[in-house]
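Action item from last week, closing it out:
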Amino acid sequence: MKLETEFKVLMHMNQYVNVNLLQKGIYSSNKPYIYSKEETIGNLVSKAKNVKKATGPISFINDSYINNLQQCKLVKVHISIKD
């Protein structure tokens, strides 16, 4: 069995980003939020806009969330598994 070892993490100014707080601002986190290696900021923004459109005024995703997300970067990381 082969395990995937390459992923992307959301970062801003060399700090992991707390994705759950993007609607309030860009806050650092002690742990990375891991995304597939194919993910892009553009895809994340598109998904956020779709959720905002589908949920309307009850959405936790606001314009600040999208603007803050666009200021971040997805950075490649490799995870090594040790026995």
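Closing note: The chain has a mean pLDDT of 92.
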